[in-house]
Amino acid sequence: MVEQELKIAIEKMKKDSPARKFTESVDIAVNLKDINLQDPSKRFQMDVRLPHPLEKEIKICVLGEGSHLVEAESAGAARIINKDELDNISREPKLAKKLAQQYDFFIATASLMPQIGRSLGKFLAPRGKMPKPLPPTAPIEPLMNNFQSTIQIRLRQSPVIHARIGTIDMEIDFIVENALNVVRTIEGRLEKGEHNIRTIYIKTTMGPAIKVK
């Protein structure tokens, strides 16, 4: 039932969306009910792997040592930071804050994680961007590829979860499958599952919100 209603809403969104000079994103908003967010245990933050990539540029920053530096360059990381540069950023809070704002995901050689936690943790953690640690000999490219299909969902002080699930030029069924994956993931983290969901809306970047009945 949810899948069919999602498809109806997304079809309407596609039909009513005028042509624009840029590719609009498609977002989902899931409004929740009967959840006590004063209780920290009810809040959560997690990565969700979508069935279909979002077809948008993902900016990945790698903080690495050894072979990870070479592999990150070959894999097309947007920014590569070695230990010396990390030392410099650690002494400059403004640089650390800017770094946290500029990139979507971070990967780090595991041996650098203690330093990253001390110096960058207060800038990265609130944004849900603490690096994924890798052992020194682990390949970095597969993880970078996974990020192309990964989004974050967060439930904090407000009982609503927003997530990007596609772009307006994606096939309808692809957007539906991404949306359903997000909804099912959220239900799985809620105490009463679907009964904690009040409403669901779908919208494009500049379009009106369409309620999923």
Overall mean pLDDT stands at 92
CATH superfamily of the largest domain: Ribosomal protein L1/L10, rRNA-binding domain
The count of β-strands is 10
Q: What percent of the residues sit in helical stretches (DSSP H or I)?
A: 25-40%
Alpha carbon gap, first and last residue = 10 Å
CATH class of the largest domain: Alpha Beta
Count of helix runs? 8
CATH architecture verdict of the largest domain: 2-Layer Sandwich
**Main beta-sheet strand count, sense and barrel state:** 4 strands, antiparallel
Class by alpha and beta content: alpha/beta
Q: State Rg.
A: 19 Å
What labels would you give this structure?
213 residues; alpha/beta; Ribulose 1,5 Bisphosphate Carboxylase/Oxygenase; Rossmann fold; 2 domains; 4-stranded antiparallel β-sheet; 4-stranded parallel β-sheet; 8 helices; 10 strands; 37% helix; globular
Ordered list of secondary-structure elements with their pairings:
Layout: H1 2-16, E1 25-32, E2 44-49, E3 60-63, H2 67-75, E4 79-81, H3 83-90, H4 93-102, E5 105-109, H5 113-119, H6 121-124, E6 132-134, H7 141-147, E7 150-155, E8 160-167, H8 172-189, E9 197-204, E10 210-212
Parallel strand pairs: 3-4, 3-5, 5-6
Antiparallel strand pairs: 1-8, 1-9, 2-7, 9-10
Describe the structure.
The chain has 213 residues and is an alpha/beta fold. It has 2 domains: 2-55 and 151-212, 2-Layer Sandwich (Ribulose 1,5 Bisphosphate Carboxylase/Oxygenase); 60-147, Rossmann fold, CATH 3.40.50. 37% of the residues lie in helices and 25% in strands. The protein is built from 8 helices and 10 strands. It has helices at 2-16, 67-75, 83-90, 93-102, 113-119, 121-124, 141-147, 172-189, and strands spanning 25-32, 44-49, 60-63, 79-81, 105-109, 132-134, 150-155, 160-167, 197-204, 210-212. The strands form 3 sheets. Strands 8-1-9-10 form a 4-stranded antiparallel beta sheet, covered by helices on one side. The protein has a 4-stranded parallel beta sheet with strand order 4-3-5-6. A two-stranded antiparallel ribbon has the order 2-7. Helix 1 (2-16) crosses helix 8. It starts with a helix and ends with a strand. The model has no long low-confidence stretch (mean pLDDT 92).
